[in-house]
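User: For a benchmark we're assembling, each entry needs the component sequences followed by a predicted structure for the full assembly. Here are entry 17's components. Please fill in the structure.
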Amino acid sequence: MLPGLSLMGNPIDPAQALDGMDVRIKKALADVALNAARSKGASYADIRIGRYLNQFVATRENRVQGVANTESYGVGIRVIADGCWGFASSNNVEKEDIAKLAERAVAVAKANAKIQGEPVKLAPQKGYGEVSWKSPIERNAFEVPVKEKVDLLLSTNAIAMQGGASFVNSVILAVNEQKYFASTDGSYIDQDIHRIYPNFTVTKIDRSSGKFDTIRSLSTPMGMGYEYLEPKESSKVKGIVTRYKDRYDILEDVKAATTNVDEKMKAKSVEPGKYDMILDPSHLWLTIHESVGHPTELDRVLGYEANYAGTSFLSLERMNSKKFNFGNELVNVVADKTQKGSLGAVGYDDEGVGCKKWDIVKDGILVNFQATRDQAHMIGLNESQGCSYAQSWQDVQFQRMPNISLQPGKAKLSVDEMIKNVEKGVYIIGDGSFSIDQQRYNFQFGGQMFYEIKEGKIVGMLKDVAYQSNTQEFWNACGAICDESDYRLGGAFNDGKGQPSQSNAVSHGCSTTRFNGVNVINTARKI
Amino acid sequence: MSILSTEEARAILKKALSFSKADECEVSLNGSEGGNIRYARNAVSTAGDMSSMGLAISSTFGKKTGSATINEFDDASLEKVVRRSEELAQLAPANPEYVSLEGPKTFAESITFNPTTARVNPDIRAEAVRKSLEVAKAANLEAAGFLENTTSFRAIMNSKGLYAYNKDTDVSFSVTTRNQAGTGSGYVSNSFNDITKLDTLALTKIAAAKANGSAGARAIEPGKYTVILEPLAASDMLSNLVRGFDARGAEEGRSFMSKKGGETRLGEQLFNEQVNIYSDPFNPELPGATWNGDGLPVERTSWVEKGIVKNLSYSRFWAQKKGVKPLPSAGRIIMEGGSASLEDLIKSTEKGILVTRFWYIRSVDPQTLLLTGLTRDGTFYIENGKIMFPIKNFRFNESPIIMLNNVEALGKAERNGNMIVPPMKIRDFTFSSLSDAV
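Assistant: Structure for entry 17:
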């Protein structure tokens, strides 16, 4: 029914989801693990006691397909022994089980040390003592009655069906990570992290021609509580389609999507060729994610992901030279794990490093990567950038992408002014199909809604649009970036990397941006 | 231990059901034990042992269903979890698509468990990786790979008397080897039920040959080419196709299996007549469970015969609505091949491209199942029956429906991941741009 449901844990009663575990009990369990690991020969150990809660409310047309509360609870212990990493996890969290689990982690490390190369070298990290951090939410989604969510989604669906949609699916997904981290460095960190993602898909079918098309919501997953679903006029960005900042109006959006899907079906099929692209943040976040976020992950640059997600066209030499033109001088990209409302915002990463913000691309030049404690020394850093994350207690933590965002233009510029300066262009709203090679050179992106621009004016909708480019060429073709009044976040819950594959939640902020002379292809086929 | 025998599992499930007061109730119990080792830059990077077990219960009053889980298995905990699911059921809205549970059935015993694979430990994994690293180092290549073994069980029981149990083992291995200059890359992957079939040394040699052979790739123009897809590349395309063999999507008009007037393409010649696709839980190379989570039997099912789509899956709800038998979706699929080797396919090709694998395949248009993605880890130009030189990677934009219409020849099928697929020679495969990626 819901993709990824099985990955998210098991169904539980919602009342149970609200009980937090006493931090004193967690500290006592953590000390058992850390002592057991040390006594078996670990030079370093950390433990994560995690409780991961999810709630899905899924509907289609006039009915509820499912209400599921899921919980995943257990413990993961990571050690360094004989210079090598070892890890073990289990859902048994009694003291005796935890001590045995720590021994298993040490045994794994020692078995692998026989084929280890260089010993693991951790960047120094001071212990924080007993600290805590909580997402700054206004309304805990797990405390909102199921009925309120069901009513909102069924109202959404009713608007679509009244507007002539053939089908509509809508979902609210709420996530709560309750994570306790402790390490032999002397940190005991308790965190309570919340995320939410409401979304819908409107489908229109023309039975006579056998054609169908869809439009998805312009919502995005956020590091917020249920307040994201409480509309606010000041959070709306008006234009040919209304878009949303940190408050989302699902009822307004579904009405527009239902009208737009009709128009999309009747739209002109795009003429392939070179166009100036105007990319809305609801679309551009994904291009940033794939073409900037991934190639600047240090594990990819170094080859640790070579067997799965791939490597990178970037290198230590290119970064160290401080001369590599990732983009032109308009392009400034920051990594930021402190950004309010973003998916990547936490107080501390999953190896106990306090979160921070740093430059990745400065005035077009590549200046930094994304690193964890065991990687920091490889790029000459004496502290980690706090990029360690594990999707659950069950999985080992490793380098994951922080929020990676394109900085808005410094000069005042609205979307309307940007469009006025385009002779022949395509304006894309919403993300669609996406694909990029394993070193992040060649990419192809689709979208949800495509508008043709001729001589400074939007003249109608297009369909069958995808653009192809090369990362460095694309970011050097950046023509203009709207100012910060247009800045919005987009993101995903399911960024995949690692073996076994793990999901990471990450946001990307930007303002509407123009790229000059990009290759557009027509994707229509006959079967 | 998180692996229970059928007797142990049955006792826990029976106890849980004994507390139920709902109209209908189903309970499932899952457990897994396993471990993995990951390596890169010719050394181990991360590795771990993982163990978990959980019980899930769904209680239904009328058409109102609630679910709950627990990790403890004493009587008090089991009763508590049953009560919780019943309370949640009373809160939940009625689901008009709820279908009464399946009654008791006898399922064939599967062949999914291999005791040797179940005994794999960290030392055995480390030794397998040591052999792989030995090949890479000897060839002056840098290896990154992954080896994982899992033993798991699943049991279900419901208030109508249905009970089923299955235990399985699986081991998967993959390795990428790259040359020091970063100009050549090779890859190999495979999965087995029986670890004794895994030869990390031989597999890494294949990846090493690809890495050395792909160095110094030349650029050729994108366009339509005859391609020979190795089984790995072919399976990447097919997995996207078989997901669409579902009756509901087709009959609702929102699938490539739909056609105008509200009809479906079931029974139509959609592919070349060399194409035969089926699933079979008793295939010894690709064994599967003989029942699914809904309590339906999983049996040998033909999906495509001589290019004609023979079956679409029906969920229990959609089957009831349409008055047909439910049919579980296409899981571990097998596409029949011929007797030709990969070398035979190359020999018979005047001009073409050999593709080792594809990468980052995504749907572009669900109406035509147009997919995009890229070649990766070894792409070669063929002329007059011989591999002439390595070529730079391409992006493709192609539909597996068009691809399976353009089949010229099929080679001998082999397992890759959770599929058995032959190497395929396909004409007019569409490459749309070049990639600099190695």
